[in-house]
Amino acid sequence: VLAETALLYGAEDYAGVADLLAEFLVRFDARTAKDRLQTTVLLGNLASAEQMLGDYPAAISRLQEALTLRIELLGADHPKIAPLRFNLANTYSKAGRYREAVGEYELAIESVEARLGPDHFEVANFYTGRGVALKKQGRYEDARRDYEHALGVMRKSVGADAPQVAMLLANLGNLSKRTGEPDKALEFHQQALAIREKRLGGEHSDIASSLDDIGSLLRAEGRVEDALVRHQRALEIRTKILGEEHPSLTLSHLLIGNSHLDAGRLDEAARWYQIGQSLRAKAGDHQNSAGLLFF
Q: pLDDT for 162-172, tens place per residue?
């Protein structure tokens, strides 16, 4: 059933995945401990499909059931518990249940630090997840501490110029922008861009994201032409990766339109807005991103 599930995921048929797994779980006769452990894997996969369908309550219920069963079978300190807690915490966060997300992240962090030590990259991932949930709660200083801690751990574990470090720098940049520190935000995003250009080459979606982040900050400072250069380069990168009519180009067109508007070029702004709206209209149901399977 896992092989068929993987094929359906590849086709982005998440409803098909959910139906297949739900039906299989009803029929699955889990008599042995090994079979019951396999049930937790199936529940995790079903939860992933339900997330992709936007059914977060159902996904949370599946993950809670899987976690309870896995703890019963393996014990609360087993290495396979913390990743499942992490998945549950991420799902809580996506559902807007940030307090519960933070609680699960804390339990996962405690477990993984005890097992792997404080300087393992997995620890950094867990701190990053909690930082995102804390930011959503408006607990910006707590989020900053988690991001900074994760950044230090990630630099030690995978190197100072790793793409994961760039992601954390971008997170700190976005947080600094939210807390009214544009100079700090710009510095973080420029550092992230430098790492991404070094490690990922000239045409990568993460580089385009950094360029747009920098462009938005420059535009807020009134440096409209400098902002426009960044947004245009971001669009060029995304166009080379995705093609000229991909729905994901919508944001790039709108950002370029905003820059022209600020510069007083109203007709040019309207032209870019129109292109962006046209791409958005074509988007249809193609906004889903790929789901993750739990094995």
A: 999 999 999 99
